[in-house]
Amino acid sequence: MATTEQAQVTKQHLIDPEICIRCNTCEETCPIDAITHDGTNYVVKPDICNHCMACVAPCPTGAIDNWQPVFVEKMYSLEEQYSWDELPALQALEVPADDTPVAAGTDSDAEVTIQGSNYVAGSQIPPWSASHSYTNLYGTRNFITATVSGNYRLTDESSESDIRHVVLDFGETPFPVLEGQSIGIIPPGTDASDRLHHARQYSLASPRDGERPRYNNVSITVKRVVQDYDGNPVQGVCSNYVCDLKKGDKVQVIGPFGHTFLMPNHPGSNIIMICTGTGSAPMRAMTERRRRKRQEEAVDEHGKLMLFFGARCQEELPYFGPLNKLPKDFIDINFAFSRTPGQPKKYVQDVMRERIVDLLELLKNEDTYIYVCGLKGMEAGVLEVLQEVAASGGMDWSELHANLRQKGRLHLETY
Length: 415
Ligand code: NAP
Known about the structure:
By secondary structure, the protein is an alpha/beta fold.
């Protein structure tokens, strides 16, 4: 039998590389920088992670929620974790349960409370009236094959930005989704290390009843990636694959993912949508859901829709034409263009500032839900304006912010 020292067992926090869609949410959420990544995997630093659980709820796929009992001296190193295509088999812990001391400073079970210090700006629960979401029905081992039924360019032909609306049909195989959820697409082939590509995540741009009503299909909004954020040329592996898809092509899909960024369903619920670029996908899905409901029910029993939408210029704005055709009494649309020649640079937060009075009216209402999607950089600016809105009405932002978070009323999905 192992000695007591040898027998020290702990639970090691691991990320399942098969399910992880490399969205970076965990790394951003971790309050103590215990999560990192290389070009292949997201991994947990065993010497730093304190099992605080802050990363668990925000993870869209559940890949983060793995805890393997391991001998302390056999904890998996970062190098080992980087090399995995799947989680390792459980270690054989040949120690009688009674003799198994738990290493100091680790948890003996999963009942760990979220510490006050693990600050997350957005809600970790959906609105109370959101429909039930199904998640992780299909993974890399049991992916679902979709057939491309359309691939349309959304941006003006004159624009260098190639953003596409791609429709995927699941035929007879069930794929239940809600607005705000996302899917993973597995690009074919292998990477430079000869490993299969991991899936890339795309938000759904279509509502729950299909891109085409009552069809078992979905749409996604994909931008062809030709350069990185510093302007260096890169070839986006999945984005180029998806943008080049032709009608009839078959695609490997996993998901659906996401259980919090969901829209409210109760009458009178207002939605404020704030997005940049392709972050407009879930906003299109929610808008389309409300538009169809309004059409079906003849009476608009739902609340107000207010949209703040940022892009470099009008030609780069996905869904610009269709958006402009929506009735003004249905949705209040506010564009922010940052690079229109001869015009001052405007970001969504600047345009929100111009609408402080109307935003305050909505913020005062407990039935107002806020959704932010797009570039990571916008998050701080948007929260700052919301704080200003609250202050303009004499509201205490920290109280309001806590209320928004606790009641599933503030949702942030930025990358
Ligand atoms: P983009 O074209 O690079 O940017 C859109 C607009 O946002 C531009 O006007 C840009 O202005 C502006 N912007 C830059 N920094 C900002 C800041 N700090 N605050 C407010 N606005 C700012 O956007 P994109 O390439 O479409 O990227 C959208 C993001 O959404 C990506 O990070 C993507 O991963 C994410 N996303 C995509 C999906 C999807 O399903 N495809 C879903 C969710 C999220 P300037 O460039 O002129 O400064």
